[in-house]
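REQUEST FORM: STRUCTURE PREDICTION
Request ID: SP-0412
Submitted by: Lab K.M.
Chain count: 1
Length (residues): 381
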Amino acid sequence: MINTGRVALSKMDAVTFGLPAHDALKEEVAKIGSQRIFLMISGSLNRNTDEITKIRNALGNKVVGEFDEISPHTPRRDVILATEAARDSRADLIVTFGGGSITDAAKAVALCLANDISDTKKMDILNFPDKVLPPTVPQISIPTTLSGGEFSAISGVTDVSSQKKDLFRHPGIIPTAVILDPVPTIHTPEWLFLSTGIRAVDHCVEGICSNKANAYGDAQALQGLALLSGGLVGVKKNKSDIQARLDCQMGTWLSMAPLSSGVPMGASHGIGYVLGAAFGIPHGHTSCIMLPAVMRWNESSNKNRQQLISAAMKLPDINAGDVLEALISKLDMPTRLSDVGIKKSDFNDIAIKSMETPWVPHNPRYITGSKDILEILALAA
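STATUS: Completed
RESULT:
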């Protein structure tokens, strides 16, 4: 059968890379014409560096409000609190500066503002994009980690009551502009920068290995994988290597091409959602642990596609699962579930919940039920 698909080009206007964030932001704001800017920012950057001060100085009296209390995994309650602050400030633009949880939160805030949502339960409606009004407040994102959510029209938000992660989708929530400045990422804790880099690697790998992979996504994801695998090692060797950091950022941008062209992720993402929402494992670490195991379990179904991974990482004669685990180990990231406190007694619960995620049904080797998830978990134990 001929491969078919549809690439939906996003509403993002621009990506600026390699320039100081405050200078690039000032230019982007001028183009949009915003006068009332709400900052959603990293608390640690706000307290411990002058990066946010540079942003405030660049924007002057256009800054009308701030929120720096988004928790990891973007819980609904934090989104509502940020929404109320943004609503009170009458913002006409949201600027995010920080990690993926902040980026996802801002997307959800934009939907809550447009749909007059003021409590966590009412956020359920956001699971049905055809029933929600489009956002009217745009976003500019300045990421300091490598999760890549700034390049998608998906907001991942955790419902703490059910310990599940919702994926709120709407074409209008993709940021209007993204600014990739490698210099502020020096402040990002090493484990967070490197592990979210493996999250971006996960986007590349599961996109390339998908049964619905296409040439558009492959071309960018393979180049992204090459940039990431080299850049992450470079940052590990020398945290001040700005070019390596920019390579990681550019690789992360490219890693999102499969998703943007409709290619679904697989079991690494699906199981990772459960590990994050139910057990509080950072998303980067979930990819570090699950991706090699999923690749090994899938190998009987997509060995030819996996060889593309090994070749892009310059080790064409080694199995992709082994190549990936070697990279993760070189970065001193966890590679086993036991490394992050997950016990075998947790496996049944993880397996059942993983079957309810949106990505497991798209895994390239068909997963028939929770017993298959248990096999994957055993490989990662």
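NOTES: The chain is about 50% helix and 10% strand.
Reviewed by: T.R.
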